[in-house]
Specification:
By secondary structure, this protein is mainly α. The chain is built from three helices and no strands. The longest helix is centred in the N-terminal third of the chain and has 22 residues.
């Protein structure tokens, strides 16, 4: 197994265990739990060459600024 794939797999294993700990606690809204799960699965495929980061940089910046202002 290449290092890149091993690193990605171990990182997602850590994320999955944290996600499952929060979800099984019962304190998370089921709709938010489902949306988070979909986001985690989608993020596995969100890497070049499937996407181009340059295309999404403006949208990501605007969303990040709005979230920081809301906070």
């Amino acid at each position: 197994m290449r290092f890149r794939q091993a690193h990605k797999s171990s990182t997602y294993a850590m994320v999955a265990s944290s996600y499952l700990a929060v979800v099984t606690s019962g304190l998370l809204n089921p709709a938010f739990a489902l949306a988070s799960f979909v986001g985690i699965v989608a993020s596995w495929y969100w890497e070049p060459p499937r996407i181009r980061y340059e295309r999404w940089s403006l949208a990501w910046t605007v969303v990040a600024v709005l979230v920081f202002l809301y906070q």
